[in-house]
Amino acid sequence: MTRHFLSVRDFSAEETLDTFALASEMKRAPARFAEALKGKALAMLFEKPSLRTRVSFDVGIQQLGGFSLYISPNEVSLGKRESIADVAKNLERMVQGIMIRTFGHAIVTEMAAHSHVPVVNGLTDTHHPCQGMADFLTIQEVKGKLEGVRVAYVGDGNNVAHSLIEAAARVGAHIAIGCPEGYDPNAGIVAWGRENGAASVTVTHDPAAAVAGADVVYADVWASMGQESEAAARKAIFVPFQVNDELFGKAKPDAIFMHCLPAHRGEEVTASVIDSARSVVFQQAENRLHVQKAILKKLMS
User: Fold this and answer.
1) Are 129 and 137 in contact (CB under 8 A)?
2) What is the distance between the alpha carbons of residues 111 and 107, in angstroms, rounded to a whole number?
3) Which domains does the chain have, with CATH numbers?
4) What is the DSSP-derived secondary structure letter of residue 5?
5) Helix ranges (DSSP H) in the chain
6) pTM exceeds 0.90, yes or no
7) pLDDT above 90: residue 145
8) Residues 132 and 166: beta-carbon distance below 8 Å
9) 72-124: per-residue pLDDT in tens?
């Protein structure tokens, strides 16, 4: 049966930890895996542009001995120029894996339903699973553990927040989401996290309460791709949720700062925080490469 990776919950707790172990080994000794996916092709469908997703998947599949094919929105126009099912059925006869970065999550679920080769979610409006996996690999590297770690996410209850909740559940971490009223994460995902292993999942509209005693403080942009028309209105609402020195100071003295990037200094985070010695944002970005290589190997071998 073909395995896909559409959200963090597609891997069990054991598989999640195994993926981190494999990613860490790949990071330490990349040459050992230089032929792990020799000659295999990864189709990369981009409905949304990206720096880190494009580079990390492209470089990653090549470091495993395979190669990638970049497919732009103009070439496919999913569901418009050609049906999602037809795209899947064409690609599965020519490639050994599909990565898709798009808008609605239903697009990736439909792609997976019609594909006999693995489909990996590079981002949708509901989930950003590869980011969540890279984030918790980074936490493991810095903190030396995952179970019981306290993560505070401050901002919009968006796709990144959803994947962090699911990853926290898989590794037994605490997670607190501090967001303005009306911008809560999906209630079903919060309930799933509470029922499936998270040490705790808290949603609060008080950013200070979310950050208090945290090991990790995490921020994201206030308006995601596709929400540009809301940017001005969101900025007025989210100002109290800026991660600045005062808010960051409510976390533990050895807390680290994380951000999935791109970041807008002076909006969701100040330069004094994101550019400080306690920021690990570029370590996070690098770990996208390693964790995605591990995911590709697990699915495409």
Assistant:
1) no
2) 6
3) 8-128+285-300 (3.40.50.1370), 130-281 (3.40.50.1370)
4) B
5) 13-28, 52-63, 73-76, 84-91, 105-113, 129-143, 159-171, 187-195, 207-211, 231-238, 245-248, 271-274, 281-300
6) yes
7) yes
8) yes
9) 988 877 777 889 999 999 999 999 999 999 999 999 999 999 999 999 999 99
* Token pair in block for residue 4: 């896909």
Residues carrying an active site annotation: 101, 128, 131, 220, 260, 288
Helix (H/G/I), strand (E/B), else coil: 41? strand
Query: Nearest 5 degrees, angle CA 150-CA 152-CA 153?
Result: 145
Cβ atoms 258, 216 nearer than 8 A: yes
Range in 19-33, 67-81, 124-138, 231-245 with the lowest mean pLDDT: 67-81
Contacts of 257 (CB under 8 A, 6+ apart): 216, 217, 218, 219, 243, 248, 269, 273, 274, 276, 278, 279, 280, 281
- Residues in the chain, total: 301
For residues 81 and 91, what is the distance between their CA atoms, to the nearest angstrom?
A: 15
Reading the block at residue 94, the tokens are 């020519």
CB 251 within 8 A of CB 257: no
**What is the DSSP track for 256-283?**
EEEE-S---BTTTB-HHHHTSTTB-HHH
Q: Which residues pair with 252 in a beta bridge?
A: none
Token pair in block for residue 135: 């984030």
